[in-house]
Amino acid sequence: MNGTTTLALKLAAPMQTWPAHSRGINRPTYEAPTYSALSGLVRCAFGMARNHPGDPLEHCRVAVRVDRRGPGRWDYQSINPVPIPDRRFQRERAFVANIEKMSGGRHNETVLTYREYLHDSVFVCLIEGPGEVVQPVRSALLEPVWQVFLGRKSCVPGPDFVLGLFGADIDWVLANLPVVAKDKQAAANISVPVHRLYPVAESDEQTEATWADQPAGPVGAFYQTRQRFTGRAEAPQVATSTEQRAWVADSTKVIEGVSPQ
Fold first, then answer.
1. Are strands 26-27 and 111-130 parallel, antiparallel or unpaired?
2. Facing residues of 29 across strands?
3. For position 202, what pLDDT does the model report?
4. Which residues touch 234 (CB under 8 Å, ≥6 apart)?
5. CA distance 236 to 251
6. Distance CA 245, CA 142 (A)
């Protein structure tokens, strides 16, 4: 498959989280999926281990459309962290004796943390690139080697996760893929926030921001800042997900999409 294609992923679930950092007691979430999170999600689908080099989205343009951002909620958790080789900033932790009948050697002491989750949020993530690059990403996400999740393993993707593959660029999909109304009362059009994770032409409607979400070195070791441009997009609105699936199936630009059932 040649030419520009765009893969649309629908990240919708009761809970998802995109941690701003993975150290300390309080672990807040970003307001939308990060580039490193999306890259890690695809790496997981391909079965790429932490020490496996490469970024499967390196030659793609990536954007996130915020169709619905739900409220943030904090959860109190206890964990027993396992040391990860080559992870930067990993401090030594005290070891405690094994509990009776537990197998293995020493294990780390329990750590108490507060972690933030986004509830009932919907993000449409778009991956644009040559067909020979994007098509394998779609195939891997449909039949992942390892379970894919939305920030943490307890946050599994909802229906229509792999929404569709289009023979068009990101801008066309942003402006034409319908947004599902929260209350089933659809308007003709709606303006929604968009995070573009790639350089774009300067515009009065876009502001530049940086998040530390560019993987550098081994996965989880450390991150560099990456440019993002925030703006808005006008898109049609439908009342239900069934109508959104039907639109995908009927679109003249769709190459492969979900069933409208």
1. parallel
2. 19
3. 58
4. 175, 189, 190, 191
5. 14
6. 16
Q: Is the pLDDT of residue 146 over 60?
A: yes
- Could you tell me the two tokens for 71? 């409220």
Q: Which two tokens stand for residue 16?
A: 């998802």
Task: For residue range 236-261, list pLDDT tens digits in order.
Answer: 999 999 999 999 999 989 988 887 76
CA dihedral 23, 27, 28, 32 (to 10 degrees): 70
Q: What is the pLDDT of residues 71-109, one digit of tens each?
A: 999 988 877 665 555 555 455 555 555 444 455 555 556
Where do the domains of the chain lie, and which CATH numbers do they carry? 4-257 (3.30.70.2660)
**Closest-CA residue to 236 (of 197, 182, 179):** 179
Helix (H, G, I), strand (E, B) or coil at 170: helix
What's the pLDDT at 23?
A: 67
Structure tokens at 7: 């893969």
Cβ-Cβ contacts under 8 Å for 204 (sequence gap 6 or more):
none
Contacts of 87 (CB under 8 A, 6+ apart): 218, 220, 221
Query: Which two structure tokens, joined as six digits, stand for 200?
Result: 């774009």
Q: Are strands 179-180 and 222-238 parallel, antiparallel or unpaired?
A: parallel
CB 98 within 8 A of CB 124: no
**C-alpha–C-alpha distance, residues 261 and 241, integer Å:** 10
Residues 6+ apart with CB under 8 A from 141: 9, 41, 42, 45, 148, 161, 162
Say whether 83 sits in a helix, a strand or coil.
coil
